[in-house]
Predict the structure.
Amino acid sequence: MFRHIIFDCFGTLIDTGSGSVEAARRILEDVGCDADPVRWYAEWKDVKRRMMREEPFDTEQEMFCRSLGEMFIRYGIHADPYEHIAPMTDTLYGRRELFPDTIAALDALDAAGTDHVIGSVTDNAPILHFMEADGLSRYFPRERIFTSEDLRAYKPDPAFYTAIVTKMGWDVSDCLFVGDSITDDVLGPHTVGMRAALIDRSGTYAGDMVPDYILRSLRELTGLEYLSR
């Protein structure tokens, strides 16, 4: 088994559901735009991800507002994004459920003596809210939660992953990154020589990139064999 595991949070430990698309729908309704909320949110997300690669660093909350402003311009919407961001901000603190395998997997890792931390693209306040609300703070005290706001970097910037390893005093060869994004949680860790496991609960991943491991459940983590490259 791996000595250290770095978990993505949202989409890996906590189910994000469809709250973001619903937030987009509410915003579009408020400004009188009839664009399809699913496609509109996907485009908005791409704009925000582009901003994450730009300098200087900005918080996710601010990038939500700035990227919404760019979307308004693209769609000819004459409105102040800061006055219409509330539906998205609400989702950052709304009720979200743990995946059914989360607690069992964390208990098993604790029993096996495996260190684990969180590495998440988020501001501090939202994730700390969910750590308390969903009972995860007993597994991840504050010093074991690393956010983009903490690290001043976003996935898949190599600095994001190396900063976590450095702060924990770990050897990257002893670490496994676990998450649901092939770009952020597999390709990103690979750039710094870290192994990665893609959590694919639906069993639908069919991309060309082959993670070190593909998991249908987090419970499978305790059965992974350490593979040397």
